[in-house]
Write a sequence for this structure.
């Protein structure tokens, strides 16, 4: 969940973690119940990552990067699409044909989003911000992930100030639900 470093290093490490979770899901047989646990962990990581980006990264992109409003709007729209798929995946079990279809669609969407961020947005951000600003932003992103929701809430606000006000409370409820159900626990 928290890796350290500046915002680009932090978010890139998240991307590799998500890639690894997709690989683990794909390696297991179609009806293996462990795929559900991995899908839950994948969901938790993607939601925390998205919330942190929406709270801290995209406002900085809007402010400092040329064309930042359009970039941020596109990235937030990508998050909305992913979150809707995660909500649908939440109701599927391994062995259900929809599960595999959704995981594949999700992987394709996330891979395209990650590629866009790493190849386009992150270099632009690195050019527009000082090293100190990127470090400070990394700290804010790590902090946001600790308090972020862990379940998809597609109708929740995704831009400040509403997202910053509501996410911690929603995150607390999600983490309580996760604790009570054992969701996201690694063996």
């Amino acid at each position: 969940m928290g890796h350290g470093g500046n915002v680009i290093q932090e978010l890139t490490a998240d991307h590799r973690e998500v890639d690894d979770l997709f690989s683990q899901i794909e390696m297991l047989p179609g009806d293996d119940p462990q795929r559900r646990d991995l899908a839950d962990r994948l969901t938790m990581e993607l939601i925390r990552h998205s919330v942190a980006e929406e709270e801290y990264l995209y406002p900085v992109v809007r402010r400092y990067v040329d064309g930042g409003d359009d970039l941020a709007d596109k990235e937030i729209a990508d998050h909305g699409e992913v979150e809707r798929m995660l909500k649908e995946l939440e109701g599927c079990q391994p062995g259900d044909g929809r599960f595999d279809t959704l995981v594949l669609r999700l992987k394709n969407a996330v891979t395209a989003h990650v590629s866009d961020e790493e190849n386009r947005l992150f270099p632009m951000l690195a050019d527009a911000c000082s090293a100190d600003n990127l470090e400070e932003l990394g700290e804010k992103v790590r902090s946001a992930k600790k308090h972020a929701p862990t379940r998809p809430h597609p109708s929740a606000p995704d831009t400040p100030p509403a997202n910053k006000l509501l996410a911690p409370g929603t995150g607390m409820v999600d983490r309580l639900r996760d604790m009570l159900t054992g969701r996201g626990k690694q063996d």
